[in-house]
C-alpha cells in the first residue's frame, strides 16, 4: 500500500485542509502484507471522532493492513469538532466531505472508482454520526456505510454536553437543553425518517456498539427506528466500551459486511 499525506486548499472551507490517503499498489517484494493493487479500486472514506483528527485511524488501528486485504483505498479527512455539518459560522464541513473531497480525490488519484457500489463511508463516535449523515446526504455516491459506537442522537448528546457555546456556533442558535435540535438538519433520526418518506435509496448499512459504551442506548434506538422504517441493515452489539481496542476489531467486521 502507498501512503499519502495530502494538503490542499478547500474552496468549501476556504482554508487549507489535511487528508491522509492509503492507496493499493502493485509490488512484488513486499513482505508480510498484500500488495496486489488493481488499476481501479473501491474507496472507503473513514471519519474520526470528536477529540481526534485525520491521523488517528493510522495511529490506533491496522487499517492499512485491512485495506490491503480488501484492495481498497482509504481517505481520512480532518474535520475538527464540526460534527460533519455545514456550520452556522460558515465552515461547510458536510459539503467538504460529501461534495468536494470525493471530486478532489478522484482528480488526484485516477484509480478511484466513481460508481456508487464502489464508494463506502465509515466512522467512529462523531464520525459514525457523520458517516450515516454523509450517506443520506449523498445516496447517489455512497453505496455502503458503517458506524462504530456512533454518537447518533445529537439532541441527547447536547443535553449532556456542557460546552453550549460550541453547539451554538455549529447549529446557529442558543441551545437550551437540546430541544432546539429536534427535527433540524443535525437530527439524524428526523433525517432518516425524511429519507424513507421521500423514497431515496439507503446504503448497505452496518452498525456496532459495545455493551459497556455510554452511547449504546442511542444506537439501540436508531436500530429500532431503522427496523420500524423497514431499512435493511445489520446492528451488532458485544462486549466493549468506547475505546480503540474495539474499533480496531470491529472495523474489520464492517469491511467484511460491506465488501464480503
Explained architecture:
With 260 residues, the chain is of the alpha/beta class. Helix content is 37%, strand content 20%. The protein has an eight-stranded mixed beta sheet, with helices on both faces. Helix 7 runs parallel beside helix 8. It is globular and about 55 Å long.
Range of helix content: 25-40%
Structural class: alpha/beta
Main sheet properties: 8 strands, mixed
Distance between the termini: 20 Å
Quickly count the helices.
9
Total beta-strand segments: 8
Rg from alpha-carbon coordinates: 18 Å
- Mean residue pLDDT: 92
Order of helices and strands: EEEHHEHEHEHHHEHEH
Roughly what fraction of the amino acids lie in strands? 15-25%
Give the strand line-up of the largest sheet.
1-2-4-3-5-6-7-8
Poorly predicted sequence stretches spanning 5 or more consecutive residues: none
Features of the shown structure:
260 residues, alpha/beta, 8-stranded mixed beta sheet, 9 helices
Write the layout of secondary structure elements.
Layout (H helix, E strand, L loop, with lengths): L1 E9 L4 E9 L18 E6 L8 H5 L2 H8 L1 E6 L15 H16 L10 E6 L1 H12 L6 E5 L5 H7 L3 H8 L16 H10 L6 E7 L5 H14 L4 E5 L5 H16 L1
Parallel strand pairs: 3-4, 3-5, 5-6, 6-7, 7-8
Antiparallel strand pairs: 1-2, 2-4
Brief account:
Helices cover 37% and strands 20% of the residues.
